[in-house]
Specification:
alpha+beta; 7 helices
């Protein structure tokens, strides 16, 4: 899909991330499959670094270089089957220590693979930080939503990107200090990326739309 062919879903401030997801699927009938990841959220890198104390440096380096997602479960869902009931059923089936994440990668009816531009930011929540993110995404010319994730912000774009366009988006986000560079690294290693759309024991906030960029 070309960048100038962006479809704006019916979404507003206060809607949840799952509600945005359903609106996006409904607005893009050419979308066939979406992917979800079931995973166990963990504390952030800076929090974990403080737990290492005087452990050997090799152990510390190995821990932070680890890209281990074999325990995560990936689920493919038909976009036409995406309803509030199906999402709520997924949530209800999750143990409290697990979360459901939306993958950037998706498949269209023509079998093409596209990517939703998504980003995990590490700025604390404040009016000034939200304005900074709005200006940043405006400079990149991305329409989408900024989501209150509990401690910080997430971004979901309305575009569907080719692989090269997705790599460019990720690289542009890596240039600025308010993007989560570790999230970007894990996403690039995985060939996709995911953002949490459910609440969990460790992260009890259900992500909610706080800004729509049209």
């Amino acid at each position: 899909m070309k960048r100038n062919d962006v479809v704006i879903p019916r979404i507003k401030n206060g809607d949840t991330a799952p509600e945005f997801l359903m609106a996006m699927a409904k607005s893009n009938p050419q979308l066939e499959f979406l992917f979800f990841t079931i995973y166990s959220p963990i504390p952030g890198a800076h929090e974990r670094l403080g737990e290492f104390g005087n452990r050997p440096t090799a152990e510390i380096v190995s821990h932070f270089l680890r890209h281990d997602s074999h325990t995560n479960k990936q689920v493919r869902v038909s976009a036409s089957d995406l309803t509030a009931d199906t999402i709520n059923e997924r949530f209800a089936a999750l143990p409290s220590n697990l979360a459901l994440g939306l993958e950037a990668k998706c498949i269209f009816h023509d079998a093409s693979v596209k990517y939703i531009p998504m980003m995990d930011f590490k700025l604390n929540q404040s009016t000034s930080n939200l304005e900074l993110l709005k200006e940043f995404l405006k400079r990149l010319a991305y329409k989408g939503i900024i989501v209150n994730s509990g401690a910080s912000y997430h971004f979901y774009g309305f575009d569907f990107l080719e692989h090269a366009q997705w790599l460019k988006f990720m690289a542009e986000c890596l240039l600025v200090p308010w993007s989560d560079s570790r999230w970007i690294g894990h996403s690039l290693l995985a060939g996709s990326g995911d953002l949490r759309i459910s609440a969990s024991e460790l992260k009890p906030k259900l992500p909610v739309v706080c800004e729509v960029l049209r």
